[in-house]
Amino acid sequence: MTALLKFLLTFLILALATPAMAQVRIKDIVTVEGVRSNQLVGYGLVVGLNGTGDSLRNAPFTQRAIEGMLERLGIGNLTEDQMRTANTAAVMVTADLPPFARAGSTIDVVVSSLGDASSLRGGTLIVTPLSAADGEIYAVAQGPIAVAGYAAQGLNASIVEGVPTGARIENGAIVEREVEFAFNDLDRVLLALRNPDFVTAKRVESAINAELPGAATAMDPRTIAIELSGKVSMMEMMAYIEPIIVEPDQVAKVIIDARSGTIVIGANVRIDRVAVSQGGLTVTVRDDFNVSQPETLSIGGTTVVVPNSTVGVEKRDAKFAVIDGSVSLQRLVDGLNAIGVGATETISILQAIKAAGALHADLEII
Questions:
Q1: pLDDT tens, residue by residue, 134-158
Q2: Which of 314, 315, 332 is nearest to 323 (CA)?
Q3: Paired sense of beta strands 359-360 and 262-265, if any
Q4: Strand partners, 262
Q5: What is the mean pLDDT of the chain?
Q6: 43 close to 115: Cβ distance less than 8 angstroms
Q7: How remote is the C-alpha of 174 from its chain's centroid?
Q8: How many domains does the chain have?
Q9: Of 175, 197, 229, which one is at a domain's C-terminal end?
Q10: Helices within the chain (DSSP H only)
Q11: pLDDT tens-digit series, residues 239-294
Q12: Is-contact 84 55, C-beta < 8 A?
């Protein structure tokens, strides 16, 4: 029995010393140096609108664009009156060129009105070159527009739902130029943590080196260097590293959106022992209007409106709740719920606890 008890005690100690089960893959918390998208932009015209396009008087750039388009198509020498139309709109076209995109592949584009067009619904984007920051053209966009919003207007009323002057074209651009990047020829790459942290960087280094000894070196809280080892290529090595499971660490943080009353509390948030009381007054003001009529057959009497105001004050008794020191997230939520407070009151309580120095977390208000 003594030997069995010693064995069980040793097993429990080792079990408690074992780290918590890992949660995420490395590919979900890092980005790879050089593997990124590139932003593209272009200026184009949307045609085929049902009278909801730019007014050429208020958007002279639209008129110039129409002139240039028609001249390229062999139609010129048109007067200003001959070109007056409300079925065309000038737009800015944006897109993201994904990494390793090849010539002939398609990408999505976003179309946004540049002039005073009221809606792009039913329009078609004509050929629009998309260039990057270096001035080179990498894609060409064209196609029918899909608008989520709508606008309708009558003589005395109008309604607008969503944003009818912004649209999206799925697979609306064709890649014409590739971004040269020989990833497989690299012998060293850098992994960048999306959320920099010393502990997480060290855990990533240890997890990689456990599978590929000596391959990873944590350089700082954000960067882990990967050295090519063996006869495998960098492509094969990254394919082996990305599925490795690690447990990232988190900074204790409380996020508050005061506009919507949304509160997000991180799992590592801790507070010291505090007593919380929350109460207040609710003041209600009600105005009723009574009509005073003159008596029948009275001379000189008039009908008057007599206001009658009622003011009521409701006092809610303040309750104290003691929240023990170094409590977990669940205990904190239970303590706040015990005094029956809502989102607005919880925000004020958290700010007060932080001001008292009892909240051990970053309090961020957005």
A1: 999 999 999 998 887 655 665 555 6
A2: 332
A3: unpaired
A4: 257
A5: 79
A6: no
A7: 27
A8: 3
A9: 175
A10: 2-17, 60-72, 198-211, 234-241, 329-338, 343-355
A11: 999 999 999 988 888 888 877 778 888 777 877 777 766 665 444 545 565 766 66
A12: no
- Residue range of the domain that includes 56: 38-175
Is 225 within the bounds of a domain? yes
The yes-or-no verdict on residue 19 having pLDDT over 60 is: no
CB-based contacts of 130, cutoff 8 Å, min separation 6: 40, 41, 42, 93, 95, 109, 137, 138, 139, 140, 141, 173
pLDDT of 223 > 80? The answer is: yes
Residues 59 and 46 sit within 8 Å (Cβ to Cβ): no
Give yes or no: residues 103 and 206 share one domain: no
CB atoms within 10 A of CB 226: 23
**Position 8 in a domain:** no
Helix (H) or strand (E) holding 290: strand 274-292
Q: Which two tokens stand for residue 158?
A: 């109008």
Q: For 164-183, how does the pLDDT look when each residue is reduced to its tens digit (9 = 90+)?
A: 888 889 999 999 999 888 88
CA gyration radius for the chain? 33
pTM (whole model) above 0.85 = no
- Indicate whether 24 belongs to any domain: no
The pLDDT value given to residue 349: 78
Whether 116 and 155 map to the same domain: the answer is yes
Helix (H) or strand (E) run with residue 124 in it: strand 124-131
